[in-house]
Amino acid sequence: MHGDRPTQRILDSVLDRRSQPQHLSLRKIWADHAENTQAVFLGNPRLSKPERARAQAAFDRATRVVAEIDATGHADGEPAHDA
What is the pLDDT of residues 42-72, one digit of tens each? Predict the structure, then answer.
């Protein structure tokens, strides 16, 4: 994800500790986007190669954002703790 500036800006704003309550709803939005992209586009065997590439890029980006949100430990409403 390094070098993907739009995604990094999204994550910087999403993961801002002051907006912690927003994490749950934003995670759901990104997770739904990834799920829908996979089901509707990537699951379509008749999709053209350029469209498949665009859909794959959208899916990959959405799953990266979800993974980054999950890495903050937001799932239970608490920030991640170092062991």
Answer: 999 999 999 999 999 999 999 999 998 888 7
